[in-house]
Every structure is written in structure tokens, then in C-alpha cells.
Write a structure and sequence with these properties.
The protein contains 14 helices and 18 strands. The protein is an alpha/beta fold. It binds NADPH dihydro-nicotinamide-adenine-dinucleotide phosphate.
Length: about 400
């Protein structure tokens, strides 16, 4: 049993709050804090039990420290934006509280993300006797656990990992993103990158694609190679991997809009002066696009995220696929959110549960694949993200 402080009252924060509220035997008390108090209160009103809410600017470390000292959580779940990661980790260090997030740190003025900034906190967290669990969403998150599971149960050596993320849902808007538009567009418009034979290979954005036949009636869809943060940690923690890639589906409509927005400069992250005022085009675009939280009631269809893994077992080549399918309408019925927020929020709750129940413990900064995958895989089946595995 422990007290949890959730930072960020967006699409993912809503799911985390719902899921923690459903488990009073693990999360004895909950506080949801975010930049805009009304968003916390709106979520709190939907929940099956009473929680606290608070207004906080997570970039203001003293303000966050003061909130932590007042509420005294056992674990902090950061589902604000990647820009806040280091400030929130600083506040956890100052107060001696365990930390969890779902996305690695990204500087606001540079479309670049990498784990090193957060891995650099390892010694300080270790010395303080606290734990940070990085990337406990779906991808990163469950995909890392899928790889650890494959390694434990199916392979002697993993040689190739392809993480494949499909959102076969439809929200009816000509263009919208299923999670924070600014983060999503920065990720998709960045150069692609994959790992092969000991080095990273950079590709032009969305320049490599192929067709993948998704299971359970989703069928063939075009997938595009992107760089994604879990590749960096998987290469570090799973020995023997020769190739690791990340793929995502995009509809033709999404790509058409994105191309135009890029061509006219609306995805730029550097400030431009308009009417004497500096504005960042991508931040302005975010203000125009539908709030991802508003897509819940209108999104239909399913997501399918999984890992296709090749390697050796007892001297023989083996090919293995493990995936989860999640239905947008079903998640909306359960927690009033679409499946992209759901598939991120549920693993964040499970990661915190692993930490609070002592199933995953350590002092320092850790990625998901460093722990025993079994209790997490079991919890996925019990808390709304059942998985299926096949030997191909
Ligand atoms: P949203 O934009 O919907 O929510 C982010 C929330 O954080 C908002 O409520 C926002 O406040 C709040 N926030 C932003 N800045 C601050 C700050 N300085 N202090 C306090 N609160 C702040 O994003 P999502 O819910 O879609 O995504 C949340 C996180 O989950 C992101 O980091 C995203 O990258 C990650 N993610 C991870 C995935 C995975 O599988 N691993 C998949 C999808 C998302 P306000 O409402 O005032 O703007």
C-alpha cells in the first residue's frame, strides 16, 4: 500500500488516475496535480473514489518539492510532458521519492530525445536510496517487457527486434494526433534511425516503409520506420542483438496533412515573430488541433502493438511475435479515454504497482527490461491489456 502523486492531467493522466483509483489495496491515497487545476478536478469527478488534486508547475522545482513535502507520496508518476522529466527527477531527489515516467527527456528547443540525460541521474538516485523507472508506457514500456519476456522464455540469444505499432482506429477528424500533438509531430518529423551490426543508421523521415499483415482481422497496413527511444535501452540491456527497428502505421490522410504542414513551416519549433510577438509554429498548431482527450468518444477501431523477434533457441532459428490488441470503444467505456492513452496509462499504473509492492526494486535509474518480466506480464492480463504470443 502506498500514496501516489500523479503529475499531468492530460489523456494519459486520466487513465492512470482511473486505474490507480480502482486499486485501493495498492494505491491507498492519490493526488493528481497538473498545470491547470480544473483539468485535475474534472478527472477527479469521474473517478470511483475520492482523490486529492493540486495545481503545480512541474518545471518549478521548489513548487513541486513543496507539493511533495505536503502530500508525502511513496511514488510519483510523471505523465506530464517529456520536457519536465529532469525537473521532476530533481524534485524526487530533493525529497527522496521514487519516480516513474513514460517518455524520455526531450529539451524543448531541440527535437532530440535520448536516455543519457536521465541515465546520468543513476548514481545520485542510488546514493539517495531511491528508484527511477523510465519509460513505463506501452512503447516504450510494454514493448521492453515483451523483449525481456522473449529473452527469458523463448530465446537463448535474440538477434533481431522489430517493434511494430499500429493504430487502426479512426477518430473522424481530417487530422488529429492521439497523444500530445507537439510531442507526436516532433517524433514523426524527426529523422528515422535503426541499429544494425553495432552501429546506428540514420534515414530520412518516413523514407522506409513496408506492408505488415496485422493479426485478428486488422489485416495488411503500411508501416514506416521511425526512431524510438526504447531502441537505445534495448541495445544496451539485451546482449547479442544485431538489429533493432521501430515501425508505426500512418494513414495516407495523416501523412498528406503532415507533409503540407511541414512544407508551410507549421511544424517548426523555433520561434517566429508575428505582430511583434514570438510564437512557436508547432505550439500554435497544437492549440488548433483537437485535444487528444476529446477523441475518446469519437474513436472507433483497435490498436495493435507488438514485437517481432528473431533469434536462436537451442541452436535453432526461431521467430516469435507477441502483441496486444486494444479496442478504442471498450477503453472509452471503461475509463472515458481512447486506446492510445489507455495503452500508455495502464502500464504506468502497473509499473508503479511493481515498485510499491516490491516486485521491482532497486536503487538508481532503470529501464523496464532490467527487471523480471513475469509479474508485469501477469499484471497486463489482469488490468486490461491482455497479450498473445505466437511462434511463427
Ligand atoms: P497531454 O498533453 O494530454 O497531457 C500532458 C499534461 O501535462 C497536461 O495536462 C499538461 O497541462 C500537463 N503539463 C504540461 N506541462 C506541465 C508542467 N510544467 N507542470 C505541470 N503539468 C504540466 O499529453 P498525454 O497525456 O497524451 O501524454 C502524457 C505523456 O505520455 C507524454 O510525455 C507523452 O510523451 C507520453 N506518452 C507515452 C507513450 C508511451 O507509450 N510510452 C505513448 C503516448 C504518450 P495543461 O493541461 O495545462 O497543458
Amino acid at each position: 500500500m502506498g500514496k501516489v502523486l500523479i503529475i499531468g492531467a492530460g489523456g494519459v493522466g486520466q487513465v492512470v488516475a482511473f486505474k490507480c483509483a480502482k486499486l485501493p489495496e495498492v494505491f491507498s491515497e492519490i493526488c493528481l496535480a497538473s498545470r491547470t487545476l480544473e483539468k485535475c478536478n474534472r478527472i477527479a469527478e469521474m473517478l470511483p473514489r475520492k482523490i486529492r488534486t493540486a495545481q503545480v508547475d512541474a518545471d518549478n522545482v521548489p513548487e513541486l518539492v513543496s507539493l511533495i513535502e505536503t502530500f508525502k507520496p511513496d511514488v510519483l508518476i510523471n505523465v506530464a510532458l517529456p520536457y519536465q522529466d529532469l525537473h521532476i527527477m530533481d524534485a524526487c531527489l530533493a525529497t527522496g521519492v521514487d519516480y516513474l515516467d513514460t517518455a524520455n527527456y526531450e529539451p524543448r528547443d531541440e527535437a532530440r530525445f535520448c536516455y543519457q540525460w536521465q541515465w546520468d541521474y543513476h548514481d545520485r538516485f542510488k546514493k539517495r536510496g531511491i528508484m527511477a523507472l523510465l519509460g513505463s508506457g506501452f512503447d516504450p514500456g510494454v514493448t521492453n517487457v515483451f523483449c525481456a519476456w522473449a529473452r527469458k522464455k523463448h530465446f537463448d540469444t535474440i538477434r533481431e527486434i522489430d517493434i511494430i505499432d499500429c493504430n487502426a482506429g479512426d477518430h473522424g477528424h481530417p487530422f488529429a494526433t492521439n497523444f500530445n500533438p507537439e510531442i507526436n509531430i516532433r517524433e514523426v518529423t524527426a529523422k528515422g534511425r535503426y541499429y544494425e551490426s553495432g552501429k546506428w543508421i540514420e534515414t530520412d523521415p518516413l523514407s522506409i516503409s513496408k506492408t505488415f499483415d496485422f493479426p485478428e482481422g486488422i489485416g495488411p497496413r503500411k508501416i514506416y520506420l521511425l526512431y524510438h527511444e526504447e531502441l537505445e535501452s534495448l541495445i544496451r540491456h539485451i546482449p547479442g542483438v544485431n538489429r533493432a527497428r521501430f515501425w508505426m502505421t500512418f494513414s495516407d490522410n495523416y501523412l498528406k496533412h503532415l507533409e503540407v504542414l511541414q512544407n508551410v513551416g507549421m511544424t517548426r519549433i523555433d520561434p517566429v515573430v508575428y505582430n511583434g510577438q514570438e510564437i512557436v509554429p508547432l505550439q500554435f498548431l497544437k492549440a488548433l488541433l483537437p485535444d487528444p482527450a476529446s477523441l475518446g468518444p469519437v474513436t472507433k477501431g483497435r490498436t495493435c502493438i507488438g514485437c517481432l523477434i528473431k533469434g536462436l533457441k537451442e541452436g535453432r532459428e526461431k521467430k516469435y511475435y507477441v502483441y496486444n490488441i486494444c479496442d478504442h470503444e471498450q477503453t472509452y467505456q471503461e475509463v472515458q479515454s481512447q486506446a492510445v492513452s489507455y495503452t500508455t496509462g495502464v502500464p504506468a499504473m502497473i509499473g508503479a504497482m511493481m515498485m510499491l509492492t516490491g516486485k521491482w526494486r532497486g536503487h538508481g535509474v532503470f529501464n523496464m527490461e532490467e527487471f523480471d518480466p513475469e509479474p508485469f506480464m501477469d499484471a497486463l492480463n489482469r488490468h486490461g491489456l491482455p497479450w498473445t504470443e505466437t511462434i511463427l
